[in-house]
Prior knowledge:
four-stranded antiparallel beta sheet, alpha+beta, 9 helices, nine-stranded mixed beta sheet
Amino acid sequence: MSIQTVPLTLPPSADPSKFSNFGRQVIGIDPGNLKPSDFAEIQQLLYKYDALLFRNVNLSPEQQYELTKAFDPKAESYGHGDHKTQSTKKSILHPDLKTIPRVPQVQLIGNGTVHNHEGLETAALKHPSHTTFHKTSVSAADEAAGITRFYRWHIDAALYDLSPPKVTTLYAIQVPQGTEQTCRYDDGTGDTLPVPLGTTAFVSGKRMFDILPRELQSVAVRARVRYAPHPYVWMSPAAAHSTGLAIESEGKELPLGELPPWTEDKIKVYPVTWKNPVTGALHFQVHPCAAQELLIDPLPEGASREGALYPDGVHITDLKDVRDLLYKMQRPAIAPGLVYPHDWKEKDLVLFHNRGVLHTVVGAFKPDQVRAFHQCNLAASDEPVGPTPEDVRQYA
């Protein structure tokens, strides 16, 4: 018997025609105790729809780890390496994550002070805020009125040494109630998005690729992105754009010689588009804040050069040029009508295809508003697969 699913409940801001193949709520099944046949179906559903929601779930850290690992049985360590987010003090991830001692692949994230939690006597959590990461921030008066921003659009991945996780699981344990906020893009477009307090916002990497004009699809299938070594340390002195989709190019990145020790063989260079293992679709999967260089191959033999960008290929090393091109390709996909801002309820479990979506935390909490989630993703046992030669010929 096939597993029952229903479409996610979309907010009024979302364009329903753009979400027909994104997101499903799974009904009547316990994700912590799946039979092998049920898991096989869940796996297919996740890669088909990119995000699955289970409601009213009771899930231990051990069960969450086992569920996450089932998508990649050879994977072992947390996506950034067990305990590494705490030991790398300069990393921008350091304040956001607390490791569950007995299951180090599971992280406690959220806001406020949590006591006697899964082996942690006291955990002081801090919800990431755009005020500490963006070049500019909303005014205190606007923030008090409920104005906020996307924090940082990203893929869950170390992007150095370790391979990007296939799946991330997010489990809501304590969710503070509050009034809706307004996410303001502040990029001159006038775009705004009503969001539930403390939402996680998702966009489809497939949609990001599909809506590109032909000349940029050609660039995307021919391009690879080289990430900076220790990218979260490298970007730590810099400041982000108001949309959370780029770093401002002001030369503030940490010089490579001041980073923790690194070697060339651990640098990650990935295709800009990643192939879905079930549907075969291409997903535009770039962590824009961590990108350092772009390498674009020439057009394949026989392809039309009319209107083509970089027909002879190019290696872009100027950081501003890299960021400007990526922003041009990625910004259309975070338009308000294309964003799914999840309205969290306690005991929600969301599984998302980390190699198929981008996501960001949004919003701001007061210090006494306690939010507690368990997050798990595992550094993958293999690398993402890029477009085939046939894909390149089709889109180039």
